[in-house]
Amino acid sequence: MSTTTTQMNCDVKNLDLADQGKKRIDWANQSMKVLQIIRKEFIKNHPLRGIRVSACLHVTAETANLAVCLRDGGADVVLCASNPLSTQDDVAASLVRDQGIPVFAIKGEDNDTYYNHIIAATEHRPHITMDDGADHTKRQDLLDGVIGGTEETTTGVIRLRAMAKEGVLRYPIVAVNDADTKHFFDNRYGTGQSTIDGIIRATNFLLAGSKFVIAGYGWCGRGLASRGRGAGAEVIVTEIDPTKALEAVMDGFRVMSMTEAAKIGDVFCTVTGNKNVLAREHFEVLKDGAIISNSGHFNVEIDIPALEKMSSSKRTTRNFVEEYVMRDGRKINLLGEGRLINLASAEGHPASVMDMSFADQALSVEYMGSNAKTLKPQVYVVPEHLDKEIARLKLESMGIKIDRLTPEQEEYLAGWSEGT
Length: 420
Ligand code: NAI
What we know:
By secondary structure, the chain is of the alpha/beta class.
């Protein structure tokens, strides 16, 4: 399965793509100022010396900068993909050729290769695992020497918390997703913008004037809805949580059940972290030409097996567009095999937002390296002082100054007697 280059065991598409990948990594780096600051500190102090890290993340230019940062901190890093469609092959090639970091990832790899790549990275016998979707937990048998891990996304954190509750989580995890500097920005603005980018790159569809149905009004859904409105779409939100649904109503969006929305929507995107959100009963009533996509973590939000059964034929009409012809002649267009569309047909989140998420990752790996011994096999949040420091550094990199509490204000906020 793996290719052995002169330097290392790895599996990437083509090392000749490395020149282009290097340019892409450099381009992303320019917008990752917080990570640059952390990297400088890592180069000086090598806080990760001797630590083996196995990272299962989307192999993008931004991730490449994180991997380099960890390596410069002294870690021995190996990288594999957290999704079969999200790998940037040129970036993977440059990481191997120019940085000497082993990568196991090829865009479009089949399921077996995808899992074999995760195993190959896990065979690195990591001390620390980094996941975007809790993928390392699939090979518990290879995780003996692991002291701790980090988790990037909502769905992964939900799974790891469920494992901790059942007592089967084997080591402590820092839930990077739950840091304010992660989900306020990455999930909302990153997913919002890049998902629309993905839908447009796949279809060249005009959002203005269209009915854009968004399933889920969590962090990602909020971002997507506001960006969709900005592009001129009439945004319709579906939810199962009454509070979130109400928030969407008061944010000015139409809210209805998916059964109703399915009849009128032009383009759909699921961002719920749940399964079968678009299912048989919805496919039965979708309009001819409807476009369906997903930006939630797993490709289970759209019931593709049901769509396969209900259709009489399918063909690929464009890159990342499968046209299913239903028995009554209606056509339904599925984007990116129902996988994260922002990474399948676009480039994932912009570097400037990943700057904060990956600053959280880098500092969480450092934190885990120094504190794992005192932590239990549970899911921990990113320490608040690190979260705030990342926000402070990001503001500084943007040239924005904010006020500081005066001693008098600090005393006032800490007390209860004044002003009564
Ligand atoms: P969240 O927990 O903030 O929001 C999910 C929302 O979906 C909740 O409000 C929930 O009530 C709603 N929901 C659940 N089942 C539903 C159903 N059947 N119909 C309608 N709504 C339903 O989670 P967040 O952070 O917005 O993440 C959502 C998904 O996106 C997760 O799978 C996460 O891992 C993934 N994600 C994807 C990214 C990307 O790059 N595409 C980036 C960040 C997260």
